[in-house]
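Human: Respectfully, please carefully check these tokens:
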Amino acid sequence: MIRTLARSVAAFALSVPLAVAASAVPVGSDYGWQWPLSLSAGDAGAYRVELTPDIYAAAWSPTLADVIVVNGDGHPVPSTLVDATVEERPVLREVPWFPLPGGRAQRDIAAISEIDTDGRLRRVELRGAEDAATAWLLDASQLDGGLLALRLSWADSQPAFEQVFRVEASDDLKQWQPVQPEARVFDLRRDDARLLQGRIAFTAPTQARYLRLLPLRASMPALQLTAVQAEVRLPEAASSWQWRALAPRAVRVDGRDGFEYRLDGRYPVTRVDLATAGNASSRWTLSVRDRDDAPWRVVATDWVVYRLGADADSRSPPQLLPAPLRDRAWRLEPESPVAAPPDLLLGYRPEALVFVAEGTQPFAVYAGSARAKRAAAPVTQMLDALRTRHGADWRPAAATPGSGTALAGEAALTPSRDWTTWVLWTVLLAGVAVVAGFAVSLLRRGSAPTG
């Protein structure tokens, strides 16, 4: 009988989690707010939602883990958060190129070059057959942005080869710095198979007027170059930045004046600036924290801010932060007293939520939850595969958030207790107590004297 009772208790205890899971509330009750999505294409499969200030303001998680996409049945779909800089894909630009005589390729190129007033190369003079071209000079003077790589093309009649090049950069054709010490380029063939590598990646983004391409293997035949393209990362457009202006609240910090500010959302802040009243010049320390009971963390010291008149060129540039910050509380401490407290300007570039359109429409963004989060999904790997297939400029179709409405509202921002664990332990302890009591009863009955 004891065994039978124990088995019954165990079976009941195991059924508790299943019963709790079966009675779980819909996912919508775990989130505070929702935004319906309008899809730019009905059958794109993958979509990109740029996060709005309302979504940032609703998010509870410091990592935006509580921002998800759900389908028409209210079920979450695979999605991932994409940083603005990750989505920036380089553009290809044609680069004028000139053959260089092998005997002078690493000497004074300026002496054999003719340059326009805007820095554009007009021609490079080759003298004599003894100076046959084995290297190349590239004119990047008209490119705006950081150079990431070169893509070389050569004639179809080019014999099979494998060459190693060094790429150097210069602004005056006299002083040269390496941007890629060794880059392997090849065109290998066997029967009908062909293996090509014509891309030369730089060790770091480069901005220079001129590049030169120097072969490191003298025994290899000269490359029959036909075209050169540069992968360029364009400068960030000013319109892509959004700013939050925060009003100051005067505080005392170690006996001195300071100012605190409150951010209303989980924005990925990477730039900070001050809006001063009139001319100003001061030095500041900037600190942040996410909770009122947490210690302050210094993120910028000796930050000099100045403004002279209304000319934008006569003011200090924004302070760059080493990594995005989503903290709620910000504090400024001036090195010396200031005439008026400044507004704090926090700059960010909106992120995007990329999702796979699983299930039925309509889709919606849910945000704001202290007890639910976005599940991990291999969306990034899928995007990489699609860019490989469709080209580096491919992007998911756009999905635009509409007006937000409340789901559970503020109630979703309160962490829930894990009642499943408590119920399970209670049932197990109760079962143990019942079994123990029954065993004691049997022992007493077995030890009683018989008449």
Notes: The CA atoms of residues 312 and 392 lie 36 Å apart.
